[in-house]
Amino acid sequence: MLSPNEAEEYCEFKRQKRIAEVAAELAKSELYAAERDMGIGDLKKIADSAKRVKSAAVRVNPVHVPAMKNLLGASGVFIDCLVGGTGETLVKAKGYEAKLAVRSGAKEITLILCYSAIKSGRTGDTKREIKRVCRAARKAVVKVAADKTLTYAEILRLGKMAADCGAKFLTVEFFPDCGRLKRDLHDSCMLEVTGVETAGDYKTLITAGAERIGTSHAEEIYAELMKEAENLSFAVNFAEPLTVASPVSSPAPATPAITAASTQTISEKSAAKASEGTPFNAAERGKTEKSEKSEKPKAEQMSVLNDKKLLDGVPGK
Question: Which of 12, 82, 222, 239 could form a disulfide with 1 if both were Cys (CB 3.0 to 4.6 A apart)?
Answer without folding.
Answer: 239
